[in-house]
Structures
1.
Amino acid sequence: MPRALALVEERGWLLLVAVFTVTLLFGFGLQAAGSLYLRWEESPIVAHYRTTLSYTSAIVGDAFLIPLVNVFVTSQLWEWRRRPRVREIGAAAFGGALLTIAVHLYQAANDLLNWTMLAPYRWTALGYEHAMFMFTELTFVLFFWGQVGLVAREQPRAIFSRRIVFVILCSLVFLRLLLGDYGYFA
């Protein structure tokens, strides 16, 4: 572990590339590969339900905006180098779990069916993978905003950062695309 930290200290861009790549893989890559596989197999799921590659929020958001958000978040947290307390991490994980459960229950209750949920309250394996990614991502973002709040209290000027502005902008664009994909915007 000390060797990895030394490497990151010397070449900070490696951490950011790793964050982007891992987010891209788990947020988009696995879902896109599943979608392509089902198309290749000519699965009836693809004929009846929307898959990852039919959502603008997945192609633009999961493949670019969310990994970019994680890069900005990671670089800002790295700059602050604040040592979090266990309760800060726990609170973010609790909030991430609540939001993930709420979104999935809303999806099921409103019959927002797609290839990850073929019937209300019945998710596919890739649906569970996406739920785990969503939980992890929401936990990370909530942790970040908690850190922003704590840093603002300790050093108010430290939160004036382009990275925070980019996190907000990327998040808003992603949310707009997501809501548009589900028909909330014409």
2.
Amino acid sequence: MIPHPYAQGFGFGLMLSVLIGPVFFALLQISITQGFRAGAQIAVGTLLSDMVLVGLCYFGLTGLIAIPENQRLLGILGGLFMLVYGGYLLLSRPPAASHEATNIPTLVTGPKGFLMVRGFLLNILNPFTLVYWLGLSTLVSALPTYEQADDLAFFGGTLSAVLFTDLLKSYLARRLRPWLSRARVLWLNRITGIVLMGFGISLLLQVFWLKRNFF
């Protein structure tokens, strides 16, 4: 018995969720230091960017991004954004609680929706996210038994799985908060910042040194 397109898409979404990229580290860092709601904003921003990319792929608008000059611009913007965000985390210092310097206070998440925008940009400026959705949309379009309703169900299942797993990661990461001290948050920020800067440098090297087209 062939699974329903939604179930097939959900399975592909689970496979996507195990890939470790810049959003993964940002989601964990935000969830641990600022709580589940903050992590959920990152997850929703990621979902919105995935929906944009799915729309681009599904309606055949990827030709604009397939132009080498546009790919390089996307790689440069993504690399710079990850470098700046990683550098901010690397240099940031968590505030000490007023009653005890080693406790972690409730951190301010900034303007409403700011974290959502951060998740959106981290995901959509990563060229490899577009490569994944382009490959998946090509696979779906090649299935002779799929009609438009099946395509929508498939991508609905994929996006549902991504959102579900991101929220689960955020919830589980939030459970680590009681274990944290200010010093541990400092090191968490440093590690996350270094990782994100590494992703950014890798992207910029591929653009300027390897002169790579991403697809």
